Amino acid sequence: MKKCLFTLSALVLLMPFVNAQQVEFEEYDLDNGMHVILHQDNTAPVVTTSVMYHVGAKDEHPERTGFAHFFEHLLFEGTKNIPRGEWFTIVTSNGGSNNANTTDDRTYYYEVFPSNSVELGLWMESERLLHPIINQIGVDTQNEVVKEEKRLRVDNQPYGNILAEIKKLMFKVHPYKGTTIGEMAHLDAATLEEFQAFNKKYYVPNNAVLVVAGDIDKSKVKKMIQDYFGPIPRGADVVRNLPKEAPITQTIKGTAYDANIQIPAIIAAYRTPSFKDRDAYVLDMISSYLSGGKSSVLYKKLVDEQKQALAVQAVNISQEDYGIYALFGLPLGDVPLTDLLAEMDEEVVKIQNELISERDYQKLQNQFENQFVSSNSSIEGIANSLARYYMLYDNVNLINTEIDIYRSISREDIQAVAKKYLNPNQRVVLEYLPKKDDN
């Protein structure tokens, strides 16, 4: 009887938690083409105002890389009505915080304010879009900021160039072959007019989605949005016709050197489909099966039991046009890189030749259920997801239904996808080595 009561009480406690995962939202378009998504949650007096622009590193001219990331910094410089250098002061003095980030596919800006400052957040983001000041002073200032960021996060970061080296081998014609931070020489060579043209082309309302999430009165917020964003003129439609990659049909081998490391690394990387493709979700599950925590297959085998690796990882890096699935290992002691790769390959072949156990399959399902719950646990996270699912997936309701895709994946699907993509003749193999002393 006690057991029954415990189970019933656990269900009662769980029910509101499960129901809370359903994210209600309203979406509509302004006359200028800007998409708007509203999510009302009055449980805490906080609001997130965010704008995602469909522009990333893949949209840059090959001789002007780094523009999208540069604009992430440049558009905090100031506007017609926000003096240069005052953006962050305004935010913090009103009890808020803000940030921005850039990928190969999109750029995202957001503010988090007490809910009584929602209008301030909307005004600031409309200012960024309507009245940015792009002048030589701002360009020169942010050029130095970006260079310092590159030195800290890439050039002087151990293993900081691994992904860049993989992308150079993986992509021959698609702009994913470059890096998000770009080449500093390209930024140095760019004219002010080139920066202004980039802004005019991509920072337009019809290439953006505005999300307001949190403690809001929707009718009041709609009026504010119309007042601040409605008058902004529509820009020319952004047309993309990016080149397609030919399939990889034999192993591509490469070697790269890093002066910041002492331990070599081996990476095997496979070109995979867009994150909109169902197979990309299956690859997520395969990566979790192989290296999701200390109980995972590769960690137990190579780190715990055989003690051949200091670290090992399988990661699915999905993007809008293509993805990269990578196996990564750091050897322990004098273990040859080829041996480490062979051991990782052995586990992939097992997935291809036999179904994973029912127990491991259920463990995966539990992991992804937990991730789904966590992803919708904050207003800030919800705002990001709403913008991303609209902009990159064209399906906002994935915020509620994406978990159903994972639930639908069977053990047979896992086996089939591993067979389809994770083969030696379809990959890049990179040996990433300590740079030899020139002396």
From TrEMBL:
Keywords, alphabetical: Hydrolase, Metalloprotease, Protease, Signal, Zinc
InterPro entries linked: Metalloenz_LuxS/M16 (IPR011249), Pept_M16_N (IPR011765), Peptidase_M16 (IPR050626), Peptidase_M16_C (IPR007863)
Domain Peptidase M16 N-terminal residues, every copy: 36-177
Domain Peptidase M16 C-terminal per the UniProt entry, residue ranges: 190-367
SUPFAM superfamilies named in the record: LuxS/MPP-like metallohydrolase (SSF63411)
Signal peptide stretch: 1-20
Family stated for the protein in its record: Belongs to the peptidase M16 family.
Protein name according to UniProt: M16 family metallopeptidase
